[in-house]
Amino acid sequence: MRDPLPAFPGYSLRRAANATAGELASRLSDIGLKQVDASILILVGENRDVTASALGRQLDIQRANMVPLLKRLEDEGWIFREPLDGKSQGLALTESGEAKTREARDIIEAFEAELLERIPPEHRDHLLPALNALWR
Amino acid sequence: MRDPLPAFPGYSLRRAANATAGELASRLSDIGLKQVDASILILVGENRDVTASALGRQLDIQRANMVPLLKRLEDEGWIFREPLDGKSQGLALTESGEAKTREARDIIEAFEAELLERIPPEHRDHLLPALNALWR
DNA sequence: TATGCATTGCTATAGACAACAACAATCGCT
DNA sequence: AGCGATTGTTGTTGTCTATAGCAATGCATA
């Protein structure tokens, strides 16, 4: 079939993102995580007492939609909340959450390394800066 | 906030794809199209009498989910179906569909050009080959 | 030519996700 | 003390995708 679409960077971007996201999702599901879960765990691990709102801003997830996500991570015993004042609550990893986060990091880092290996060496180092120019 | 995530190509890939897809979606909505619609119109335009199944395979959309998509394009008067045999039906653009497709192409091509311009020149030409190495 | 398997188009359903509006409580600034 | 902004939350909606199933047809081959 004639298909001019892959010549469009925007289209290839979407397809590549879908394909790789699918792969990563499959690997993370082995340890019971979705990609969002892993992102949240990593951010909470690096930023003790971050608030749900701040997390949402960083990840471009609306406040309202953070609720079920955090509830699940809390129910699993990976994060807990501690009141910062009468209104805000800080998030932090439990011990089991820290272990889970390390697992997730291992999976992700292995995956990222594989991704880069698929790219011909002459293009490899340009991907990240090019991508970051598109959204940051 | 400390955020190690943008250092992961896979994460940046997803974020860049979301950001750019959102922008393109907004522009395409000006002419009443979603991105899938535009993809389908372009493919049908390049491949007269392509079947719904073949389209789905090319775009990674399941047969069942093509139905409402194509129904809408047909209801809008942009595509029509002609029986190829007793079972398969070929898709083709109407005249108004061809006009709509040209509009979509103009928007997409302008958008893609802008995307590339955002990327520092030394990285620009590496994006497409790097992306295509990830999913094709 | 007849049989069996694959394919096509479609219906119906369920789950995941994101957007949106609204609300009470609280914070922080003036 | 008052007021606008922020936080966490509920509830709802629409969109998208996966899945299973079905009747009809095509295709290959025995």
From TrEMBL, chains A, B:
PROSITE patterns: HTH_MARR_2. The keyword S-adenosyl-L-methionine does not apply. The keyword Transcription applies. Residues 1-136 form the HTH marR-type domain. GO terms for molecular function: DNA binding; DNA-binding transcription factor activity. InterPro entries: HTH_MarR-typ (IPR000835), WH-like_DNA-bd_sf (IPR036388), WH_DNA-bd_sf (IPR036390). Keywords: DNA-binding, Transcription, Transcription regulation. This is MarR family transcriptional regulator. It comes from Alteraurantiacibacter aquimixticola.
